[in-house]
Amino acid sequence: MAEHLTITKGTKEEQYNFLLPQLKAMIEGESDLIANMANISAALKAQFDWLWVGFYIVKKDELVLGPFQGPIACTRIQKGKGVCGTSFEKKQTIIVQDVNQFPGHIFCSNLSLSEIVVPIMKDDFILAVLDIDSAKYSSFDETDRVYLEKIAAIVAEIW
Ligand code: SME
């Protein structure tokens, strides 16, 4: 496993394109899912300096907090509740430009202003969600969706 992360500057695409092969190298040869999710969270947070990056894992019919980087967070989220629970229910990526405008948004930190939640899917089954919070409004767009869905697919592969 590669244990170094090189941070780059540039456009969002350039940053993701530089990060992705490093993520793949980082998890190569490591079979432990929790260890890999922990390092993926740390690498994303280090590259983009978001407020919170982490995973919620589907257990029974709710989401339970998994590996993350950032302030302490709610430990359980019910299906259909908040941005994470909505992504879980709909099995879709959800981008929220202003969390105050999202009905039922769950405030784990009042510093969070925008958010993206990406489901981690295997066939039609949802395994977890990747949740990212930003301390700025409108941090996430279609570029994030495309690349974070690629990262979600990598996590699904090693599940
Ligand atoms: N804001 C999320 C809850 C999780 S925290 O942001 C880490 C939501 O509405 O589902």
Number of H- or I-type helical stretches: 4
* Low-confidence segments: none
Task: Give the helix/strand class.
Answer: alpha+beta
Distance between the termini: 17 Å
Basic shape: globular
- Radius of gyration (CA) equals 14 Å
Q: Which H/E pattern describes the elements?
A: HHEEEHEEEH
Bound molecules: methionine sulfoxide
Architecture per CATH nomenclature, i.e. the level-2 architecture: 2-Layer Sandwich
> What is the CATH topology?
Beta-Lactamase
Average pLDDT taken over every residue: 96
- Number of separate structural domains: 1
**Residue share in helices?**
25-40%
What does this structure look like?
The chain is built from 4 helices and 6 strands; from the N terminus they run ααβββαβββα. The chain has helices at 12-27, 33-48, 82-90, 142-157, and strands spanning 52-59, 62-69, 76-78, 94-96, 114-122, 125-134. It has a single domain (12-158), classed as Beta-Lactamase, CATH 3.30.450. The chain has a 6-stranded antiparallel beta sheet, with helices on both faces. A hairpin with a 6-residue loop joins strand 2 (62-69) and strand 3. With 159 residues, it is α+β, with helices and mostly antiparallel strands. The mean pLDDT is 96. Helices cover 36% and strands 26% of the residues.
Key attributes of the depicted protein:
6 strands, 4 helices, single chain, binds methionine sulfoxide, alpha+beta, six-stranded antiparallel sheet, Beta-Lactamase, 159 residues
Helix and strand layout, with pairings?
Layout (H helix, E strand, L loop, with lengths): L11 H16 L5 H16 L3 E8 L2 E8 L6 E3 L3 H9 L3 E3 L17 E9 L2 E10 L7 H16 L2
Antiparallel strand pairs: 1-2, 1-6, 2-3, 4-5, 5-6
Helix pairs in contact: 1-2, 1-4
